[in-house]
Design goal:
Elements: E1 5-9, E2 12-17, E3 22-26, H1 28-38, H2 71-83, E4 104-108, E5 110-111, E6 132-133, H3 136-151, E7 157-163, H4 171-183, H5 185-188, E8 191-198, H6 205-214, E9 215-221, H7 226-232, H8 242-251, E10 258-264, H9 271-279, E11 285-290, H10 300-305, H11 309-327, E12 338-339, H12 340-351, E13 365-368, E14 373-375, E15 389-390, H13 401-404, H14 420-423, H15 428-435, H16 443-466, H17 468-472
Parallel strand pairs: 4-7, 4-13, 7-8, 8-9, 9-10, 10-11, 11-12
Antiparallel strand pairs: 1-2, 2-3, 5-6, 13-14, 14-15
Helix pairs in contact: 1-2, 3-4, 11-16, 12-16
Bound molecules: iron/sulfur cluster (SF4) (2 copies).
């Protein structure tokens, strides 16, 4: 295996090493020499001038001032150094006896919704089954399960995400669970951090006051411009919703807690334009995601909404060039809207952390349905084969074997992939949807992940040059599960 990756972006050639997470910028001459030395295939498009840029810090850049004649020796040394970097250690959790690693719980408070968005991946939380809300009694059992797991957890912060459907349809139960967990914080010496994903239509009055007081993040779905949002996100009976949601966002008591989330489809404005639209609302945390491929592959309407990958990549590149140029006009990041999903990916690469497992589904995070059934994460809810138990039985939770002992180095085809310590095997739930096997990625999935990773690496290199301070900014992320 040639354990590095060569790629071209923005007219520059880059060299990335998976084990060390170091990124180097290469000149045409350095690229040619490297390909000759290593036998690696020469990328078709070589246009940059020679500069090799190694650095000791992970995923960083610095200048190596080699004369062309010295290149073979320098590059040989570089390969020797990089290719002997030890592979990352396994991420398997070592919990002390009687302890666990759970730190994140997603609760389907409502498997029902008051809107009918055209791309909804879980069909208003119902997954096509009869809809319903979590009852008070179930909520009590769920709360006790969380308390008992939190008590044995090695984490100090426990994240509770209210999800749906539309969780604010069930505000009394949201309040009941929040206050009960709050009451127990001192006894358990834990900090419960509450978040909610809402469509924003009910984010008003007492509900808004309560969330502003007790929650650390409120994700509100808003698809950019009014005309687009109203087509993509109509109310349950087809009514328009943009105006009401925007009024709720504007009136929300603490806008710092809000994160606006847009889903991009073939009906949407491009990424950059949607971002511009959302920045006009005075909310600094913005997240844009393309309507993606998990679930309901068989639905032709849904398929038509998926933006073709090449267009996604083009839009992302256009956006990142604009974003980096705009950010670089500032000396610090405090007033700049934060594109949370993109920046999370870029700063994740920048930190150089290596991962051997994709996520903590079922190991340190759980999702619980409105009926009290426990699943590894929100994307596995209502897939009975992955059910881990029930909140009311008191029996130990059992994790599906496929998710139990994954290690990226032991998994085909991931073990030979240059992105393996960043992607770490990808999303089990997406693989399950696309191939029928939670550990088997679809080739198209891998192609998309790698293309996006090249864009993030390129953006990181640009930021290091033009606005390095922006990479130091804390995303204020409440620790939401990494979603591939
Ligand atoms: S899922 Fe695909 S992109 Fe991710 S590590 Fe495995 S082979 Fe690489
Ligand atoms: S990466 Fe996939 S399997 Fe893991 S938590 Fe996210 S949605 Fe679930």
């Amino acid at each position: 295996m040639t354990d590095f990756h060569l790629f071209e972006a923005g007219g520059v050639n880059y060299l990335f090493f998976p084990s060390s997470a170091r990124l180097y910028q290469l000149s045409k001459a350095a690229l040619g020499t490297l390909c000759r030395l290593s036998g690696a295939p020469h990328p078709a498009d070589i246009s940059a001038a020679l500069r090799a840029l190694p650095h000791d810090a992970p995923a960083d850049q610095a200048v190596l001032s080699a004369e062309p004649g010295d290149l073979s020796a320098e590059l040989d040394d570089l390969l020797q150094k990089e290719l002997t970097v030890a592979q990352p250690a396994s991420a398997a959790m070592q919990n002390a006896p009687g302890r666990n690693g759970f730190h994140s719980f997603s609760l389907y408070l409502a498997q029902s919704c008051n809107m009918s968005c055209c791309y909804c991946w879980n069909r208003g939380g119902s997954f096509g089954k009869p809809s319903g809300l979590m009852g008070e009694q179930t909520a009590q059992l769920v709360t006790e399960l969380i308390l008992s797991l939190a008590e044995g957890s090695s984490a100090d912060k426990i994240f509770i995400n209210f999800y749906g459907g539309e969780p604010l349809l069930n505000f009394p139960v949201l309040k009941q669970i929040t206050l009960r967990l709050r009451q127990q914080e001192a006894r358990l010496a834990k900090n419960f951090c509450f978040t909610v994903d809402t469509n924003g239509s009910l984010l008003e009055g007492e509900t808004a006051q309560f969330l502003a007081r007790h929650f650390v993040q409120i994700g509100v779905s808003l698809d950019g411009r009014q005309e687009i949002h109203d087509v993509q996100r109509p109310g349950f009976n087809g009514e328009v919703t943009w105006e009401r949601i925007v009024a709720n966002v504007r009136a929300f008591p603490n806008r710092k807690l809000l994160c606006l989330r847009a889903t991009l489809t073939t009906l949407s404005d491009p990424y950059l334009e949607t971002f511009r639209q959302l920045t006009t609302l005075g909310v600094r945390r913005i997240q844009l995601e393309y309507c993606h491929e998990t679930g309901y592959q068989e639905n032709p309407v849904y398929q038509e909404l998926i933006v073709p990958p090449e267009r996604q990549f083009e839009e992302l590149r256009e956006f990142l060039d604009y974003y980096v140029d705009t950010v670089s006009l500032y000396q610090n990041s405090s007033d700049i809207p934060f594109v949370s999903s993109l920046m999370d990916n870029i700063t994740r690469i920048r930190r150089g952390n290596r991962y051997t497992r994709p996520c903590g589904a079922g190991m340190n995070m759980l999702a619980i349905s409105s009926r009290g059934e426990v699943f590894p994460c929100i994307a596995f809810v209502e897939r009975e084969e992955f059910a881990m138990g029930r909140a009311d039985t008191g029996s130990p939770l059992s994790l599906h074997q496929t998710l139990a002992d994954f290690e990226v180095d032991g998994q085909v085809p991931c073990h030979a992939c240059w992105l393996r310590y960043d992607c770490a095997g990808g999303c089990y739930a997406t693989h399950y949807d696309m191939t029928g096997h939670a550990r088997q990625p679809h080739p198209q999935y891998c192609k998309n992940m790698k293309a996006k990773a090249e864009i993030y690496l390129y953006a990181m290199a640009q930021m290091l040059k033009k606005c390095p301070w922006h990479l130091e900014r804390d995303s204020d992320s409440p620790g939401a599960p990494y979603s591939a």
